[in-house]
Amino acid sequence: MSITFAIDNGSDYIRNNKPEMIEVERYDCQCVDFSENGKAEPDCRECKGSGEVKFDIFPFEMNVANGNAQTVMNSLGLDFDYCGEINPHRLLKAIQRTPVELACRQGSTDKGDRGCTIIRMGIDIKQANSYLTRLTAIAEEACKREEQVIWG
After folding, report:
1. Helix (H, G, I), strand (E, B) or coil at 119
2. Which of 2, 31, 65, 146 could anchor a disulfide with 41, C-beta 3.0 to 4.6 Å?
């Protein structure tokens, strides 16, 4: 599972005011891989027969794993829940007072109750810095727009 941090009404704002900022990621549709003839299925719900799936990528959004979102929010001294909102000025203050090292988390490997291996990837300094840099950009833009920073 994952959590996306964004600006309230962010995608609508970009679509209506700055559509040139939207990036599009394209992927081959799985219907091509699973078809008998190697061609797109005309009635595919994902690609609608084109053989390609497209996703809009909006600026001022960040998607992270649940555990990483919790680690980052906790390191900033902010309450974490799987969805919420925060005033961007408060978020910026929390980021500015927090050393990036606090957002790091050591990876680990454990054995589960039934012998399965549980791997926790952790957050290294480069990744922590990336998270805080992107959150700063989101919060600064939210301040300009006078909107909340949301996540969920």
Report:
1. strand
2. 31
* 138, two tokens: 């989101």
Distance CA 73, CA 103 (A): 8
Check residue 128 and give left, alpha or beta (phi > 0: left; psi -120 to 50: alpha).
alpha
Taken in order 134, 136, 21, 15, the sign of the CA dihedral is: positive
Could you report the per-residue pLDDT of 134-152, keeping only the tens digit for each?
A: 999 999 999 999 999 999 9
Q: What is the pLDDT of residues 64-93, one digit of tens each?
A: 999 999 999 999 999 999 999 999 999 999
Identify the burial level of 60 via C-beta atoms within 10 angstroms of its C-beta, where 0-12 means exposed, 13-18 middle and 19 or more buried.
Answer: buried
Domain ranges of the chain: 8-59, 65-152
Query: Residues near 112 by Cβ (< 8 Å), separated by ≥ 6?
Result: 118
Backbone φ, ψ for residue 74 (5° rounding)? -65, -40
